[in-house]
Amino acid sequence: MAVSEAHRAIDQVWRAEAARVTAGLARVVRDVGVAEELAQDALVAALEQWPREGVPRNPGAWLMAVGKRRAIDLIRRRERLERKVDELGHDLLAGGQDDDAALAALEGSLDGGIEDDMLRLVFTACHPVLSTEARVALTLRMLGGLKTEEIARAFLVGEPTVAQRIVRAKRTLSDARVPFEVPAGAELAGRLSSVLEVIYLIFNEGYTATAGDDWMRPALCEEALRLGRVLAGLMPREREVHGLVALMEIQASRSAARVGPSGEPVLLLEQDRGLWDRAAIGRGLAALERAEAIGAAPGPYTLQAAIAACHARAAEAGGTDWVRIAALYEALVRQVPSPVVELNRAVALAMAFGPEAGLRLVEELAGDPALKGYHLLPSVRGDLLFRLGRTAEARREFQRAASLTRNDRERTLLLARAAACVPADPRPGTGP
To answer: How far apart are alpha carbons 359 and 324 in whole angstroms?
Structure first.
């Protein structure tokens, strides 16, 4: 196998398997930072061996096996080995046991509970010993396999800031000896909002990739949905868990319609709704009903799910209840004050009451420092200006949005929209 071909294969495997390998190793070593280092060691081994020997039939299992053997070597080197052996009540790693037997004994001695390493990884990374920003950044890195620049994009902050958060978070968890487990009782409920935030950010990175050649990364959406469904089973009386599952199911139902024949993005109002997955919509609406049946007031995920349901229930774009969507966004802004949510509300206002109404709010948001460099601000402004016939201004906004996005597919779409901004009756002195 050619080295370049092997490296491409390794990159694809790593994106798909890194989180599972890290989570499995964290269950062994009980330290998420060390687990990530061991997973990286396995990646280095793949880079050395696969170009010579070919990609194994089950590359994820290969990476896990190498990582586990590195974990055994690490445990053997630790000064705490003798104390660990005493605690377990028998000699796990000494005297003639091979690596596989030692590892099986070690894994069998670990605490029981929820048999889902990925879920353990989420709750460990979301431990209250960390700041909210650090919890989200660390989990996105370790569970979603996102690069530092992708996480920075999601948070609208600089890459160095995110990198520091991740390094400090791993060090803090290690120093505090945070157990690799799913908490119980009140502690579980206390960590839930951070976990939901992390899962939804992972879903969003899969739903609309912030960078690269692909508009979507379906594996991330699927993993976020899986985690959300597991949480819903664990916490059936938590309204927001069902709300998040409903939101993700309904949004994921559009996946086949969001990408054109050549991989180009297709915007919501232009999608063929016959391609929407009705089964996924049904699951989402059922989850929304479960959320709304619980007595607590609707939270941000339930409100967003209700917005998504307005789109899902409309047989065609023209039948969308934009007035209700605008009202739901207003309620969402009260709960989660955010310039990004306000930008979405501006779109809803424009659809419900005309582009002037939306543009007024967009102009108010233009000076918000949190939106500096956020490509969707000029994209929305360009759309509203185009609808008002101000095509020269619209073209400049679409061009600016194209210069800001990191996704190649989205850049192509924005440049096409800029090119379409041609005045119907061009007059001298009115060009850009």
So the answer is: 19
DSSP letters, 276-302, are S-HHHHHHHHHHHHHHHHSSSPP-HHH
Residue 57 near residue 69 (C-beta atoms within 8 A): no
In a 3-state reduction of DSSP, which class is residue 60? helix
d(CA 174, CA 186): 23
Determine which of 53-57, 100-104, 157-161, 168-172 has the lowest per-residue pLDDT on average: 100-104
Among 167, 105, 182, which residue's Cα sits nearest to residue 130? Answer: 167
Q: pTM for the complete prediction?
A: 0.71
pLDDT above 50: residue 114: no
CA–CA distance, 286 with 243 (Å, rounded to integer): 10
Contact between 258 and 265 under an 8 Å Cβ cutoff? The reply is yes
- Long-range CB pairs of 202-209 (<8 Å, 24+ gap) are 202/139, 202/140, 202/143, 202/144, 202/146, 202/227, 203/228, 203/248, 203/251, 203/252, 204/154, 205/140, 205/144, 205/146, 205/150, 205/154, 207/251, 207/252, 207/255, 208/407, 208/410, 209/407
pLDDT, tens only, 293-351: 997 789 999 999 999 999 999 999 999 999 999 999 999 999 999 999 999 999 999 99
The answer to whether residue 431 scores a pLDDT higher than 50 is no
Helix (H, G, I), strand (E, B) or coil at 262: coil
How far, in Å, CA of 233 to CA of 228, rounded?
9
Contact status, residue 276 vs residue 318, Cβ threshold 8 Å: no
For 87-125, letters b (16+ CB in 10 Å) and e give eeeeebbeeeeeeeebbeebeeeeeeeeeebbbbbbbbb
Residues 179-191 have pLDDT tens digits of 888 887 777 777 8
pLDDT at 92: 46
Contact 156, 204 (CB under 8 A): no
